[in-house]
């Protein structure tokens, strides 16, 4: 498998290849690009996070993850660390032991490994938020300290199933339900209240979300007629 890291000039729309990297996750932190790279041919080989100068594409640092962590889901920058949501891999390419790995950007070294709360993990730039199954068909959203990974609070949200999560600093958005009966819900962290913002029936599963002023954008993936990706915008009241 091969891939490239490309930069798009917003003034021209022209894409320029800045590195030949088969990256699986990308984030911006400390004014640099952080790219996670996995060895798809050697599942037991630890993944690596490469820090790049976004202007030149030059490698600033290479940070190997601890032994056994060959799968990376996301890179999650906070004010206290650059976190990597990763899992261990076995000989057959299976994954287990979801964990959060902390990298100190001042030294480019791994400084801690903590168990992941369970579901999707995202960052609002300060804290980490994670969906967590409580049992008996009930879920919660858990906020973690961005520097230490310690649990700060857990907010039950009552949903029977939680998919993608998006934290903006003022709200936490999440997909509740399944692909057939899904809703876009919003948690107000200051009050713990949850409201349904939009019904998503028939749009396909949501695989990513992003917020813009006055709207939330959803990327859907529908397999009913073959893999089909669509983008929808939910305007907020």
What's the number of helices?
Answer: 0
| Residue windows where pLDDT falls under 50 for at least 5 positions | none
CATH superfamily of the largest domain: TolB, C-terminal domain
Q: Remind me, CATH topology of the largest domain?
A: Neuraminidase
Portion of residues within helices = under 10%
Number of domains: 2
- Rg for CA atoms: 18 Å
What is the topology?
Layout: E1 5-8, E2 15-19, E3 23-29, E4 32-37, E5 48-52, E6 59-64, E7 71-77, E8 82-89, E9 95-104, E10 109-115, E11 121-123, E12 128-135, E13 138-144, E14 151-156, E15 162-167, E16 172-177, E17 182-188, E18 193-199, E19 205-212, E20 215-222, E21 228-235
Antiparallel strand pairs: 1-2, 3-4, 4-5, 5-6, 7-8, 8-9, 9-10, 11-12, 12-13, 13-14, 15-16, 16-17, 17-18, 19-20, 20-21
Concise synopsis of the structure shown:
With 237 residues, the chain is mainly β.
Task: Give your account of this protein's structure.
- The chain is an all-beta fold and 237 residues long.
- The chain has two domains: 1-116, 6 Propeller (Neuraminidase), CATH 2.120.10; 117-237, Neuraminidase.
- The protein is built from no helices and 21 strands.
- The chain has strands at 5-8, 15-19, 23-29, 32-37, 48-52, 59-64, 71-77, 82-89, 95-104, 109-115, 121-123, 128-135, 138-144, 151-156, 162-167, 172-177, 182-188, 193-199, 205-212, 215-222, 228-235.
- The strands form six sheets. It has a four-stranded antiparallel β-sheet, with no helix packed on it. The protein has a four-stranded antiparallel β-sheet with strand order 7-8-9-10, with no helix packed on it. It has a four-stranded antiparallel β-sheet with strand order 11-12-13-14, with no helix packed on it.
- Strand 11 (121-123) and strand 12 form a beta hairpin.
- The model has no long low-confidence stretch (mean pLDDT 89).
């Amino acid at each position: 498998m091969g891939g490239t890291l490309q930069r798009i000039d917003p003034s021209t729309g022209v894409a320029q290849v800045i590195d030949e990297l088969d990256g699986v996750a990308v984030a911006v932190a400390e004014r640099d690009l952080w790219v996670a790279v996995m060895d798809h041919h050697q599942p037991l080989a630890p993944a690596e996070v490469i820090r790049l100068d976004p202007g030149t594409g030059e490698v600033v640092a290479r940070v190997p993850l601890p032994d056994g962590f060959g799968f990376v889901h996301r890179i999650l920058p906070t004010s206290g660390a650059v976190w990597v949501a990763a899992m261990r891999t076995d000989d057959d390419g299976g994954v287990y032991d979801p964990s959060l790995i902390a990298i100190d950007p001042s030294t480019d070294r791994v400084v801690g490994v903590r168990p992941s709360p369970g579901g999707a993990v995202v960052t609002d730039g300060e804290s980490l938020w994670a969906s967590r199954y409580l049992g008996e068909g009930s879920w919660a959203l858990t906020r973690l300290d961005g520097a230490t990974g310690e649990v700060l609070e857990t907010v039950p949200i009552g949903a029977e199933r939680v998919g993608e999560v998006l934290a903006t600093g003022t709200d936490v958005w999440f997909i509740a339900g399944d692909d057939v009966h899904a809703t876009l819900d919003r948690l107000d962290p200051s009050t713990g209240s949850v409201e349904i913002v939009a019904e998503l029936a028939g749009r396909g599963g949501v695989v990513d979300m992003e917020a813009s002023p006055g709207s939330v954008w959803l990327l859907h993936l529908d397999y009913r007629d073959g893999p089909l990706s669509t983008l929808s915008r939910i305007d907020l009241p």
